[in-house]
Design a protein that fits this description.
It is a single chain. The protein is an alpha+beta fold. It contains 8 helices and 16 strands. The protein binds (3R)-3-hydroxy-3-methyl-5-(phosphonooxy)pentanoic acid. (3R)-3-hydroxy-3-methyl-5-(phosphonooxy)pentanoic acid binds next to α2 and α4.
Length: 319
């Protein structure tokens, strides 16, 4: 029996991946840019076992059948279809399937653990491409700090454009709901592409947002990054709101958090918001205003709790 463990942290997209150019290979329709976090994590262990007839998955100690087919398919890609069945155990120190990028950290950790379990020794980019087939954003969690993902032909490439210590940004996550989201991001992306009248504009204008964000990162220009990240986030959500049927991930507390961020900004506080496929608001700020931002969001109506993080490293094996 071989058992291997790995850990990965979620990442938060500032320039969002939303839409697939090929559903079967899960190839993203747009390039993206994200921050890999440090304080939230998923740990995953994979044991290949000749005594099992089927794969078994436990998430935070409970059997998880809904997620199993995606996990098994990912293991097939890493270890081959004729592999032994696996016992997979996953634990996260934050709510899963609630717009906190738990699938990103889960699949990033899974490919690293599975590669070790079947002795693959693959490089990081190869593992990132495999993780990306399971969850587009997972590819970015193989990398640390500020990460770009570019589509090149039928493949993706990734790059760390700033290490955590080169631009130590802070993140406050305002948790407004702990439960799973209503519509999965994969399903919502397909619906957006098929029905939103704004989808083609979203695709066409992504390159200019990514260029602006990369320039802002290279120049460590916080206000330029804030402007383009908020714009890109609101554009992505405009696409989901205008899909049929509409996909609205926001709750009233989500909007209350945006108002809090606007008030902080008008007081001169270096902070901006972003929102993924869920109701949580992620506020990115400079470390010197972290406690101000955390207090303000923690006291916002409807916020259940806040989680604070800095930037962290990419997925790694645990010995
Ligand atoms: O990787 P997925 O399928 O969970 O989709 C992620 C979608 C967003 O989080 C909304 C955006 C992103 O780039 O992470």
């Amino acid at each position: 029996m071989t058992g291997q463990s790995a850990q990965a942290q979620p990442n938060i997209a500032l320039i969002k991946y939303w839409g697939k150019s090929e559903i079967s290979s899960n190839l993203p329709a747009v390039d993206s840019l994200s921050l890999t976090l440090d304080s939230l994590h998923t740990q995953m262990s994979v044991s290949l076992r000749d005594d099992l007839n089927t794969d078994r998955l436990e998430i935070n100690g409970a059997p998880a059948t809904a997620m199993l087919p995606r996990v098994s398919a990912c293991l097939d890609t890493v270890c081959g279809k004729d592999r032994a069945r696996a016992s997979i155990k996953s634990s996260s120190n934050f709510p899963i399937a609630a717009g906190l990028a738990s699938s990103a950290s889960a699949f990033a950790a899974l490919v690293v653990a599975a590669d070790r379990a079947c002795g693959g020794g693959r490089d990081r980019l190869t593992l990132a491409r495999i993780a990306g087939r399971a969850s587009g954003s997972a590819a970015r969690s193989l990398y640390g700090g500020i990460v770009t993902l570019n589509k090149v032909g039928a493949e993706i490439n990734l790059q760390e454009i700033a290490q955590p210590n080169e631009w130590p940004l802070s993140v406050v996550i305002a948790v407004t709901e702990e439960g799973p989201k209503s519509v999965s991001s994969g399903e919502a992306m397909v619906r957006s592409a098929e029905t939103s009248p704004f989808y083609s504009t979203w695709i066409d204008r992504q390159g200019e947002d990514l260029d602006s964000a990369m320039t802002a990162v290279a120049e460590r220009n916080f206000s330029a990054l804030a402007t383009v990240a908020e714009h890109n986030c609101l554009k992505m959500h405009s696409v989901t709101w205008t899909s049929r049927p509409p996909v609205v991930y926001w709750k009233s507390a989500t909007i209350a958090c945006l108002e809090t961020v606007r008030r902080l900004q008008s007081d001169g506080c270096p902070v901006f918001f972003t929102i993924d496929a869920g109701p949580q608001v992620k506020a990115v700020c400079l470390p010197e205003v972290l406690s101000t931002v955390e207090n303000a969001l923690g006291n916002t109506t409807g916020v259940k709790r806040t989680i604070v993080s800095g930037l962290g490293s990419g997925a790694r094996a645990l010995d």
